[in-house]
Amino acid sequence: MGSSTKGLLAILAFTVAAPVAAQAPLPPTTPRFVEVVRLAQDGFGDSARVIMAKMLAQTSPVDPAYPEALYTAAAVAKTLTETRLHYARIAVDFPSSAWADKAILRLAQLDYGSGNSESAVLRVKRLFTDFPKSQVIPVAALFGARAAFERRDGQLACDWIARGIDMVGNDIELRNQLEFTRQRCTPAELARIAALPNPDSVQPPVAPTVAPPKVTVQQPATSIAKPPVVANAANSPWRIQVAAIADPTSIRRVIGQIEAAGFTAYRVAGPKGLTKLQAGPFATRDAAVAQLAKLQAAVGGAPFITKAP
């Protein structure tokens, strides 16, 4: 087994075995899913995967249990590629589910373990932005800070460590790890953090009311900024799909993120009440590929190349 794979497995083992106070509810909580994980842990991984495949086939994507089923399938998957795919689907297709923040954390941990500190930082940023009160924030702060330090961004790392310590609660082991990592912060960084106001005691400014983006199926949403890479792409079929969701609030949020990144947003009717959210247009497939990283940074998840219907 290679050192990279060992590192990833060590991270997964840490997140399962760490104290419940900070980690909960990282493991599945529904009894039938708990039993599948236990079966895999007892050495019957193939049987666990067969059971999960049947459960996924028998569960509708609009069923509230479906994201947890995907999360469980990721936990017992045979390869890291399968694990990533399941977590990415939760993050992209079910961003308002109770499992989205846990899936994003898992992806960040896998990115960090594989040496991709840039992607790990981006995922942790999304966690802090979209799930500021999540129970996984202390763990995300630890892994995010380590990744930020590797990228020589001490200010971001120390900010995250401070936030993690504030939210860690009674998990002594995790608190100790956060405190140990904070030793890498310079006196200047610690002084700056100490001078910051307590976010819980300061009333946030009232944001101006902004009308939601006006979009229609197959019609580009109005956008001031246009993609800089799409010469002669008006009739091109190439797009990037960033999500497939049903929640209207999440749809508006993702459309805003697409447009803020400088792309045109498209809504495409999907199965079982889902709406596919796509960005584009792109003159060629290569032009779309060149913008994948930018859209992932803006929206998160696992965007992929597709064609217009």
**CATH class descriptor of the largest domain:** Mainly Alpha
CATH topology label of the largest domain: Serine Threonine Protein Phosphatase 5, Tetratricopeptide repeat
Unreliable runs, pLDDT <50, ≥5 residues?
1-25, 199-205, 221-233
In what order do the strands lie side by side in the largest sheet? 2-3-1-4
- Tell me what the CATH architecture of the largest domain is: Alpha Horseshoe
Label the overall shape.
Answer: globular
What's the gyration radius in Å?
Answer: 20 Å
Q: Please, could you describe this protein's structure?
A:
The chain contains 15 helices and four strands. It has 309 residues and is α+β, with helices and mostly antiparallel strands. It folds into two domains: 3-195, Alpha Horseshoe (Serine Threonine Protein Phosphatase 5, Tetratricopeptide repeat); 207-309, Alpha-Beta Plaits, CATH 3.30.70.1070. Strands 2-3-1-4 form a four-stranded antiparallel sheet. Helix 9 packs parallel to helix 11 (172-182) and helix 10 packs antiparallel against helix 11. The longest helix is centred in the N-terminal third of the chain and has 15 residues, at 3-17. It is globular and about 55 Å long. 39% of the residues are buried. The model is unreliable at 1-25, 199-205 and 221-233 (pLDDT under 50).
